[in-house]
User: What shape does this take?
Amino acid sequence: MASTELATERALYIGNTITTTVYGGILFLYAYSTYLLMSSIKPATRRRTLFYIYFGGLLLLLLTISAATNVAFGELMWIEKRNIPGGPAAFFADNLAAWYNVFGTAADCLANILTDGLLLYRCYIIWGSNLRVVVIPAIIYLGSAAMAIMTVIESAMPLSNLWQGLTAQFGISWVALTVGFNVIVTGLIISRLLFFHRKVRSILSDEQRSTYTGTAAIMVESALPFTVLGIVYLVTYILGIPSATAVGIIWGTFVVLTPQLIILRVASGIAWSRDTGSSITQATLHYHDNSSSGSSNMIMKNV
Assistant: This one.
């Protein structure tokens, strides 16, 4: 028991340390993206530009709340309340339902709902605004959002434990649904980008292929690292091992990092838009009709 409690405390410390490190990077990404968006703002795209600025700012605020509550929890457990009967382990078990922890959980859940919503929209855009493609992911998304809300409500109950009992059942259901959603959306986006990668291999330059269908583009647009980390978190959560605490905190950080990387691509003017797929298709047809027409010099519009 003592070794498990120590491992849980170590996991909390590791998770907090990594989160505070990544937080600085996210803060820079948000500031840089905002600068790019504001410097290129036009009347026709003003609403879209402001949306991405406010969206990224809201996610950053939610991450700030989540990280601050985790750090405060650690400070109380290891410093302020370390001499209570049972020590830090007793404080950890008795205060998982404290208001600040519930506040942090709510921030994580809301950030996840917003991020998954953006990923669903990006999948819709990349698939040429095809509603049929996103019907199943949308249903799973609604179920995930409902389970996230139930997790927050249950975690606020006296003596509840996010890692045990009914709260954990809701939590596992939420994570399982959101990870399932991420797997499907990631798969759809990757398959679409790989399809276009093969399609334009002979007509676009290496730089153009790298920009829209390269490895970095696929990883960012599909949120592949976020999906893989979510699978790891789900496995550790189900098994109930101490490392789930660290993985969960890091996963919560990637909930905000993932859309911020997408917003950076949007701000840089290299993200997929409604017209990117059709532009590639038209360029391909034009290239085959007249290989000397210079059709590879496409102008990709931003979202």
